[in-house]
Specification:
349 residues, alpha/beta, Rossmann fold, 2 domains, 6-stranded parallel beta sheet, 16 helices, 46% helix, 15% strand
């Protein structure tokens, strides 16, 4: 089989969780003997491909031209992020006027106008975000969600689905499952991810400064949210350290020397970094929001970040606990990419 993995234009210029998902899917497919090509929106598809696997339901303008013309099987990994909690803080007046889907439309046009993303096309301009997502779902043979709650959210937003739906969690990279030497002592909190409203890092930076928690913040600024990054820097006290986007061995070293990974996002469809951190012996705390309350429950502890006093008390307590014992080997092995890819191959067939 020749599978094309179709992703957003900014997959590498603004790397995120979907960057890891696309690359690991391609690598696992190749290990299974299949041909896998990564194509960014706006580029041509290989002629001999027989499966098209698109990513990001929330970016229909990227995917629709391909889904309309491709003759083979069309698979869509939804990665359907709900930005509404972050957008209500970021654009309160505009959100109240145009709502969730209207604001996604406005942001798509704005990214095109400032040159940070491709132009969505005349049809998208004419009919809007919600209509285009519904069209994309109608053209999809199989929708892949990473959790059951993600499927339910899609149905709530766009109505009953005519395509088949399969739930497949994301996998842990093989290098995160390899044995390693445990650090003599783990210290401090770790935040990983692009700095933006959705990820909610500023809340933890503020708390860490007030409580003198040692905190390492790893990630670059969102190209379109540089003020948020500046606000995070301005809020940080002497116990807060900032590092740029990190991957590979450098990332694993951070996971092996820090005590607790904190995921404060207003929303995550599937926080893969939580599973990677657990595989490296870290304690994982996460904001109790959809879909993390389903996908991270096996390896982490939920926090109610909206209750500041209670959340800070829980973080304080967590930093006092001994860590270093990895989660169940069988549990982690069941989430390796080579295991997950078998479910995807079953879907492609």
């Amino acid at each position: 089989m020749h599978i094309v993995l179709l992703a957003r234009k900014t997959l590498y210029t603004q790397p995120g969780g979907d960057t890891v998902q696309v690359e690991e899917t391609a690598s696992a497919l190749r290990r299974c003997g299949h041909e896998a090509s990564i194509v960014l929106a706006g580029d041509a598809l290989p002629r001999k491909a027989n499966v098209l696997h698109g990513f990001n339901l929330g970016r229909p303008a990227d995917l629709l031209p391909y889904f309309r013309s491709f003759k083979g099987k069309k698979i869509l990994s939804s990665i359907y992020v709900d930005y509404s909690l972050a957008d209500q803080q970021r654009f309160p007046v505009l959100y109240s006027l145009v709502g969730k889907h209207g604001l996604e439309y406005v942001k798509t046009i704005a990214r095109a106008l400032n040159g940070s993303d491709r132009f969505p096309g005349a049809q998208y301009m004419a009919v809007g975000q919600k209509s285009q997502v519904r069209t994309l779902l109608r053209l999809t043979d199989l929708l892949i969600t990473s959790s059951k709650s993600e499927k339910e959210r899609i149905q709530d937003d766009f109505g009953s689905l005519s395509c088949r739906v399969k739930t497949v969690p994301l996998g842990i990279g093989e290098s995160f499952l390899e044995p390693y030497e445990e650090a003599k002592e783990r210290k401090g909190l770790l935040l990983l991810g692009r700095l933006e409203w959705l990820k909610n890092q500023k809340t933890i930076i503020t708390w860490a400064t007030a409580n003198n928690w040692p905190l390492t913040v790893v990630g670059d600024a969102n190209t379109n949210q540089r003020k948020y990054y500046s606000d995070c820097l301005a809020q940080a006290g002497p116990t807060v350290t900032f590092l740029p986007y990190t991957a590979g061995d450098e990332l694993k070293q951070l996971l092996r020397t820090h005590h607790t990974l904190l995921i404060p996002s207003h929303f995550e469809t599937f926080s893969l970094v939580g599973w990677e951190a657990a595989a490296q012996g870290m304690q994982v705390l996460y904001n109790d929001v959809a879909d993390m309350n389903e996908t991270l429950a096996p390896i982490g502890t939920a926090l109610q970040l909206k209750n500041q006093a209670e959340a800070q008390e829980s973080i304080d307590a967590a930093l006092q606990e001994n860590v270093g014992q990895k989660k169940s080997h069988d549990l982690l092995e069941s989430r390796s990419w080579d295991t997950i890819i078998l479910a995807l191959l079953e879907a492609y067939a």
